[in-house]
What does this fold into?
Amino acid sequence: MSEPASRPQTEALPDEPHHLPVERLISLLDVEVEPGLRSAQIKARRQRFGKNVLRRHQPAGVFNIVINQLKSPVVYLLAAAALLAGGLGEWADFTAILAVLAINTMIGFVTEIRAMRSMEALRQLSASSVRVRRDHQHMVIPADDLVPGDIVVLDAGDVITADMRVISSANLSSDESALTGESLPVAKSPQAVAIDTALAERTSMLYKGCAITRGTGEGLVTATGMQTELGRITHLVEHSEPERSPLERQLERLSRDLIWITLAVAAAVALAGIYVGQNIPLMVETAVALAVAAIPEGLPIVATLALARGMLRMARRNALIERLSAVETLGATTVIMTDKTGTLTENRMHVDRIVTPVGEIAFDRQAGTFLLGGRPVSVGLASGLDTLLRAAALCNNAALHDDGAGGTGDPMEVALLEAALAGGLRKQTLHSQYPEVAEHAFDAGTKMMATVHQSNGGYLIAVKGAPEAVFERLSKIQSPDGLAVPFDDRISRNWQSYCDLLASQGLRLLAIAGKPARTAQVNPYADLTLYGVIGLQDPPRSDVAAALADARRAGIKVVMVTGDHALTAKSISQTVGLAPAGTEVFKGEDLTSLKEMSEQDKAAARAALVFSRVSPEQKLDLITLHQQAGEFVAMTGDGVNDAPALKKAEIGIAMGQRGTQVAREAADMVLRDDAFSTIIHAVREGRIIYTNIRRFTTYLLSCNLSEILVIGLAVLGGLPLPLLPLQILFLNLVTDVFPAFALGTIEADRDVLERPPRPPSEPILSGAQWQAIIIHGAIISFVTLTAAGMAIYQLGMRDDQITTMCFFTLALAQLWHVFNMRNWREGPVFNQLTRNTFVWLSIAICIALLTLAAFEPHLASVLHIVPLAPEAWTTILGLSILPVLMREVAAIFVRTRRRHFAD
It folds into this structure.
């Protein structure tokens, strides 16, 4: 796709060091191998190239976190209302609104600080020192002090701290899965490779951020810091702009709409009141009351609390969220682009099957048994199996842990030892019986490795390697009866065809061969006898298939984007059920840049399910391609090569156990258990949160609309002002917030993962929600104005008593209104709301607060509440319950009609 992003340049370094001969590089970097760099050279290069460090993503500071909580149009709207109240001398209103802003900011700040600390707890310390040769001396220096031209001494287990050209090697291999996505260690040698060799196949280079899995060697530093391949990817991450979440965009849109509604309603009512003869000071007070009524002061607090609660629930399910708005964003995900190694697979090689002349033998790693024709078989009774496993264990540099589960060294060699151990062959015991006297290290040219062992007065040679390489060196094959027979062309073609079949199933193949010898100096690769072929697999994670099935039911498309081989990617995708048989694998080399793609090519790329050999730049292009089609993309990954895409996607998901720190810092979510199923749990939680946000937003706005209608209609009808600004603020901040928060804790509908993802452009409130807001708001305002009418014409109350009666009628009607937020399919008694403890707790708290407002003298004085007669309270209670009863009548009607049409 797009051309690789250039490294940020400071001074010229050797171009294409993987292609240049070692002698040429040594000359270009002006260094002598034996003495290493001189002190004067080191000082000059440190000044030219700087420290060997990457520009690290700095977490937001305390001040920035606080400012981020205030970047919301709803907050701007509240601030404007506070200034208006202060300008009119309404200092109680001014103070109350500022308190709302402070509480909202504090909740968001505390939650994000907790998330930041959780992320910090996952940080891994990188290698802090490195062995070099300088001024004729071997020394250990801080890795940050490396400069181009340094000679680095390497050993198994070392983390590579700069890009290096291999200048000497002994059985040297590097694990580059974090950088390239390739799950197998790469054998390294000083031999130069072609200039156009892919990064994953540059056997002459070692790259910063990777690790030495076995062997020893020396490397010539060719690039440090931001000049390295890792630095180039870090540069891409810095220039990948994160997408804003749908909730952020939709709340901003809703807030803008509310601003215009507030201004329009306040101005219209004030002008209409003046027009019908109301006095101007009263209309100004009315306009302020309407402005306060139109603003859902509790919305920022409730939304923040709901998201914070979702963040904590996800953390308990092993999903750490870095920013609040990312919590609900998962619910809108339409495409998950996932890496293969370590995400869909375990990133650990296992022996899957063994092919010997007697037949194909399956290996059940969990049970530790070998199966021939589906039946368990003893290693000693399966002709040739014991010989094959013995050779595989002898020709091996890995070591198992004491418990036999896992080990250190090349993952393929560890897998061979595990299989041998299951067959009763322990490496330590074999080496005591067959002491090793020589080793011919794996070589990229021969693609084989051999070891020589003492055996019964003679020698035994064990060989393993790529089947095509070993087959060329064979003269015999072990027959089913244990005898050696000629390995002729016909047998060779049959075995090669079978190996091709196994390779197409995604297996990594090793041919195992050997021979007896009279002397240790014999050519180890001549006249070999084939013992068999071992097929190894990086197995899928056990929970992936079920998680992918859940994703499909949820309407989410999962795309594999990996740096691994096409055959391996295809096999894994079919094994886990990601792609059906016959699915075409798109190779990175066949993908043109995004600008050069035709519409047909773009459509084909969007429809593809599996991509292999994809570069970091191509991952960015694939995400952009889906985003241009309106998709909402989540990207999973664990390697350094995934970091730019993790930041570009709407949701970046990094692995907590296997993931690199670079990937974690670029991600919005980190999976502590690396389980793909955790993503689906997080998607489910995101959908629940969004549904609940819609629910309590509908609740709050219908309450606000009822307040607007009560004030506007009363004033236009010539009635006294039924509600004062501070009373409205009390309702919006106290009696509305607690039920709204309870609505944010409602559990999911049973079919929450059976629905398709919501369109990212869908407004937070649909037409149905706005219809419900208008209907409920009108009904609540009707019963409140009825209370006002009864207070005036039936009970003969004073203005302050009328205001008090309207206040409590509206407060209780809004409180019972919480039960109107249930699903239409549920009955009035047993439903999501009546089963929710928080709903009943919120009602109890609100009733307690309203009781204080009615009977605590100081609070009643602040709110202008006066005592009421018992008959007034009876009227208030009777009227306030009417909206719930009317809604239930409507629900019964709707359910009856649906059953009628269903019949």
Notes: The domain at 22-57+128-160+163-223 is CATH 2.70.150.10 (Calcium-transporting ATPase, cytoplasmic transduction domain A).
